[in-house]
Amino acid sequence: MKHQARKRFGQHFLTDSAIIDAIVRAIDPRPGEPVVEIGPGLGALTLPLVARCERLTVVELDRDLAAKLRKNPALDVVESDVLRVDFGALADRLGGQAPGRAVLKVAGNLPYNISTPILFHLLPWAHRVVDQHFMLQKEVVDRMAAEPGSKAYGRLSVMLQWRYDIESLFDVPPESFDPPPQVDSAIVRMTPRPQFEALDLPRFEAMMAVAFSQRRKLLRHSLGRWLEEQRFQGEFDLQRRAEEVPVAEFVALARALLG
Q1: Whole-prediction pTM
Q2: What's its top-level EC category (predicted)?
C-alpha cells in the first residue's frame, strides 16, 4: 500500500533521481562514517546513502515509516521527534574511539514547518558535527546565507553564521517531490567553524530575538532597552537597524555581555 503523505508531519517525498544523485555527491559519505539522516521518509535518499556508507542512522517520527525502515538491517532507526534527540549522545554512541570529537555527518529533507527549530536544536552540538546537508525551503536557505544590509538578513543569519560556514549549493523545483510543495527548495551545506567565540547560547538567542523584533526601527528602540536591563556598560552603536550590523559585531556584543 502506498504511504500517504501526512500534512501534520510536513511530508513531501523527493522523487527526482538526478537531484537525489546530486545530493548524495554533495554529502559524499564514506564507508564507516557515522551518518545521520533526519526524516528519511520513503527512503529516496536513505538507500543511496547507505550504499555509500554501509550503515546509516535515521531519525523518523512517523511510526508507519519507522516500521518499514526497520526491515533494512543496515539502518539504525531512532523513532522520535528530532527536537527530542540528543545529538551529543548519538555522536558518543556512533563515534567509537573518538569521544568529544566531531564525527557526525548529518543530512535530511527537513520538514519545512519546523526547519528553523531543528536548525537551532542542532546548534549546541555543532562541535560534534563534520558537516550538515539539508533540503530546505529556498527562502530559508537565502536567510541562512544572507549578508548584512539585505532584506533576508536576520536572526537566523546571525545565529547560524556565528557557528557555521553556510553554502547554498543548488535549487530544487517543486516538481521534484510527491506531493509538490508550494515553494521552491534548495540544498544547503553547513560546515561548523573550527574557530569561533564561545557564547551563552540562550542569552545570545534572546538578544537576537530582541534586536530583530523591530526591523524598521533603530536598535536604540529595541536592543538599547534590553541592554539597559542587562546593565551593559560597554559601547555599541545603536543608531543602526539590526540588518546593518555584521555578525562579528553581534557576537562581540554577546561576548561582552559575558563580562
Answers
A1: 0.91
A2: transferase
